[in-house]
């Protein structure tokens, strides 16, 4: 059964599979791969919702599930947004808590017969997710973090995104484009006139976002478009194929997945 037959409704953040759907899909693959969107609840300027990173992670995960036979999970909606604490509405949990949540989810999945997990991260501040994957892999568990910077760069080029990944830091061209495609009804007026650049952010972890931007925006949202958002998601879904191949292979070699 194809992933497209199992995907949730277009704008649903919660998958609608039954346990039999999961059982049927698992019977047709050598190893089941679960996909967990990890977002955040933090400011994204005046025009994007606090849930933007969660919406982006879910949009990527839905596109993946439409193209690959994966077990799509509901999102983690609050994560490590401490650098955005100066803005009302932002909520964070500690990195220790997020680490524990991911480990518990992975262990629960393994008990139910799903032993490979991909974290689809929508928030750049979730640095601890890299450590979770690193430690899990060292224990012999199958886990990956997606998208990698290389996946984002390939998607940026393919979709015609003009802003570099350095400049497009927060509420910029990429996030605005994905929401214009996936959730246009959630975008408020003002993204067309909210561009702000701050490429030198070397003290961000010490000073927080408020030291670099008054609006909360760092990037060029005015360049965003639904067409670019569609292209970004399509490219990321294609890139995900290499992760499926790696996590379902009999060994841990990446030699056959680099060109997937």
- Share of residues in strands: 5-15%
Radius of gyration: 18 Å
Question: In total, how many beta strands?
Answer: 4
Biggest sheet descriptor: 4 strands, parallel
Structural class category:
alpha/beta
Order of strands in the sheet with most strands: 2-1-3-4
Mean pLDDT: 92
- Categorize the overall geometry: globular
Please count the helical segments.
9
Order of helices and strands: HHEHEHEHEHHHH
Helix content percent band: 40-55%
How many angstroms separate the termini?
21 Å
Low-confidence stretches: 1-10, 253-260
Architecture overview:
The radius of gyration is 18 Å and the shape is globular. The two termini are 21 Å apart. It has a 4-stranded parallel β-sheet with strand order 2-1-3-4, sandwiched between helices. With 260 residues, it is an alpha/beta fold. Helix 5 links the parallel strand 3 and strand 4. 45% of the residues are buried. It has helices spanning 3-6, 19-27, 52-67, 95-111, 128-138, 149-159, 173-182, 204-207, 226-248; strands at residues 33-38, 71-72, 116-121, 142-146. It is built from 9 helices and 4 strands.
Give a nutshell description of this structure:
The chain has 9 helices and 4 strands.
Keywords:
single chain; 260 residues; alpha/beta; 4-stranded parallel beta sheet; 9 helices; 40% helix; globular; disordered N terminus; disordered C terminus
Strand and helix map with partners:
Blueprint: H1 3-6, H2 19-27, E1 33-38, H3 52-67, E2 71-72, H4 95-111, E3 116-121, H5 128-138, E4 142-146, H6 149-159, H7 173-182, H8 204-207, H9 226-248
Parallel strand pairs: 1-2, 1-3, 3-4
Helix pairs in contact: 3-7, 3-9, 4-5, 6-9, 7-9
């Amino acid at each position: 059964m194809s992933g497209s037959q199992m995907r949730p409704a277009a704008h649903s953040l919660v998958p609608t599979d039954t346990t039999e759907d999961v059982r049927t899909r698992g019977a047709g693959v050598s190893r089941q791969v679960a996909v967990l969107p990890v977002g955040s609840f933090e400011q994204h300027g005046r025009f994007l919702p606090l849930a933007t990173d969660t919406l982006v992670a879910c949009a990527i995960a839905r596109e993946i599930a439409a193209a690959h036979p994966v077990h799509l999970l509901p999102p983690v909606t609050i994560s490590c947004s401490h650098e955005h604490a100066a803005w009302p509405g932002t909520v964070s949990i500690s990195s220790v808590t997020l680490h524990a949540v991911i480990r518990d989810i992975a262990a629960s999945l393994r008990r139910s017969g799903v032993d490979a997990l991909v974290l689809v991260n929508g928030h750049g501040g979730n640095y601890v997710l890299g450590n979770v994957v690193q430690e899990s892999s060292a224990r012999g568990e199958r886990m990956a973090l997606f998208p990698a910077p290389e996946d984002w760069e390939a998607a940026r080029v393919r979709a015609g995104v003009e802003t570099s990944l350095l400049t497009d830091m927060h509420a910029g061209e990429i996030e605005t484009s994905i929401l214009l495609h996936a959730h246009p009804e959630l975008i408020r007026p003002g993204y067309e006139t909210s561009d702000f650049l701050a490429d030198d952010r070397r003290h961000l972890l010490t000073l927080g976002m408020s030291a670099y931007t008054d609006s909360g925006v760092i990037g060029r949202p005015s360049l965003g478009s639904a067409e670019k958002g569609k292209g970004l998601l399509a490219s990321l879904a294609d890139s995900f194929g290499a992760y499926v191949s790696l996590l379902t292979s009999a060994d841990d070699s990446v030699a056959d997945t680099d060109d997937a």
